[in-house]
Amino acid sequence: MNLQELLTVNTGLAWLILAALLAIAELLAPGIFLVFIAAGAAITGIVTLLVPGFDLVFEVFLFAAASAAAVALGRGWYRSNPVPSADPLLNDRVARLVGQVVTVVEPITAGQGRVKVGDGEWPANGPDTPAGAHVRITGARDGSLDVEPA
To answer: Could you report the per-residue pLDDT of 102-117, keeping only the tens digit for each?
Structure first.
């Protein structure tokens, strides 16, 4: 085996070892992302072993392209197969507020005012309502809550 073949085999093995390390890292700290980068490294390692003689620059571009393709495929799969959640509104604070009855703290005049939500205040849009009145949150837009009389 000449030096070029030895370097090619070692480069291919290095990519496969990187893929294994990334897969192990994904198992230790799951984030559902390193697995796709590991797939890109594995593809690069396999191609490098099957077709020897690539420059390192080409291998890096192959790795980037394979990783991007793996991320795109994974993202598409996760979109079409959503993971069910016990609390689907966990990260959508405004959606969790819809339906709550809150108190107007600054009168809503000309369609704008402020309401007390929990221990904070939010800008509110809705019909003219005096301070102290109760309103129901119906939605939100542009950082303001849409309200209607309760």
So the answer is: 999 999 999 999 999 9
Give the 3-state secondary structure of the chain.
CCHHHHHHHHHHHHHHHHHHHHHHHHHHCCCCCHHHHHHHHHHHHHHHHHCCCCCHHHHHHHHHHHHHHHHHHHHHHHHHCCCCCCCCCCCCHHHHHCCCEEEEEEEEECCEEEEEECCEEEEEECCCECCCCEEEEEEEECCEEEEEEC
Position 42, amino acid: A
Taking each helix axis from N to C end, the angle separating 56-80 and 3-28, rounded to the nearest 10 degrees, works out to: 30
Q: How many domains does the chain have?
A: 2
Residue 3 has pLDDT above 60, yes or no: no
Domain check: are 10 and 72 in the same one? yes
pLDDT of the residue at 46: 95
Question: 132 and 71 in one domain?
Answer: no
How far apart CA 138 and CA 66 sit, in angstroms, is 45
32 in a domain, yes or no? Answer: yes
